[in-house]
Specification:
The protein is an alpha/beta fold. It folds into two domains: 218 residues, NAD(P)-binding Rossmann-like Domain (Rossmann fold, 3-Layer(aba) Sandwich); 37 residues, no CATH class. 45% of the residues lie in helices and 13% in strands. It contains eight helices and seven strands. It has a seven-stranded parallel sheet with strand order 3-2-1-4-5-6-7, with helices on both faces. Helix 2 packs across helix 8 and helix 5 runs parallel beside helix 6. It is globular and about 45 Å long. The two termini are 30 Å apart. The relative contact order is 0.14.
Length: 271
């Protein structure tokens, strides 16, 4: 088949598709929701931070694109199932489930409390698991769909003080592969993205005050330090990941499933 600009554009066109993005209130989730809408999708912006989800929805609608906002705790199975059911009832289908909501807790192994362990596993693993279950049921029934999970470069490059985070993301990567095998025959694709270090609200929280003001000098110092281990010598931005989300959501990746996409600037290069 000869690829022309028209067919290339069509492969990335999400017009008429419906996407749910968890964690859409900030960072990678917000960037992904904005880019999915820009590609033509109707986007349901879901986040524990209802104000953040509403702000993302407003940004999308300000551009004349379609979006809803939902406040949700992804660790609540019934709430996640209701999110999918309500989306299907409103829009008639679900084409993309982007499980992006997540947290990070930094502690050495011998200092991780049981509460911290349970919390990071609940948000980073149980939440996407519930999302995968609910979305897969709908997508298998309709015979199409793309599930996108957000893992991390921490699955390839063990980092001190990130054991809980790395374990939760490694388990999610394996869930991605297994589910891809299970639902592939029905025409449903399941992939994951493993970002490197991304400058976002989650990674800048340690140098952000109560009013949301970021210490610019400390931010620059962290970016410089983190860039040293990256082949491209820069840290990532939310859009670096959002473009990968759009790719995996679109027909451009129609022959891809069970894969871990690694936009990390060359920080980790596993075989």
């Amino acid at each position: 088949m000869t690829t022309t600009p028209e067919t290339l554009a069509a492969a990335h066109d999400l017009t008429g598709r419906v996407a749910i993005v968890t964690g859409a209130g900030s960072g990678i989730g917000r960037a992904s929701a904005l880019r999915l809408a820009e590609a033509g999708a109707s986007v349901v912006c879901a986040d524990l931070n209802g104000d953040g989800a509403e702000d993302t929805r407003a940004r999308i609608r300000h551009r004349g694109e379609l979006a809803d906002a939902v406040t949700i705790d992804v660790t609540d199975r019934e709430a996640v199932e209701a999110l999918v059911a309500d989306t299907v009832e409103r829009h008639g289908r679900l084409d993309v489930m982007a499980n992006i909501a997540g947290i990070i807790i930094t502690n050495p192994v011998d200092a991780i409390s049981e509460d911290e362990f349970d919390k990071i596993m609940a948000v980073n693993l149980k939440g996407p698991f519930f999302g995968c279950q609910a979305a897969a049921r709908q997508m298998v029934e309709q015979g199409s769909g793309s599930i996108i999970n957000m893992v991390s470069a921490a699955i390839d490059a063990p980092a001190p003080n990130l054991a809980g985070y790395g374990m939760s993301k490694a388990a999610l990567a394996q869930l991605t592969r297994v589910l891809a095998r299970e639902v592939g025959p029905a025409g449903v694709r399941v992939n994951a993205i493993a970002p490197g270090f991304i400058i976002s609200e989650m990674t800048t929280r340690n140098f952000t005050d109560a009013e949301g003001n970021v210490d610019a000098d400390l931010k620059a110092e962290v970016e410089k330090r983190m860039s040293k281990g990256v082949a491209l010598r820069r840290v990532g931005q939310p859009d670096d990941i959002a473009f990968a989300v759009v790719y995996l959501a679109s027909d451009a990746s129609s022959f891809m499933t069970g894969q871990i996409v690694r936009p990390n600037g060359g920080a980790a290069m596993p075989f």
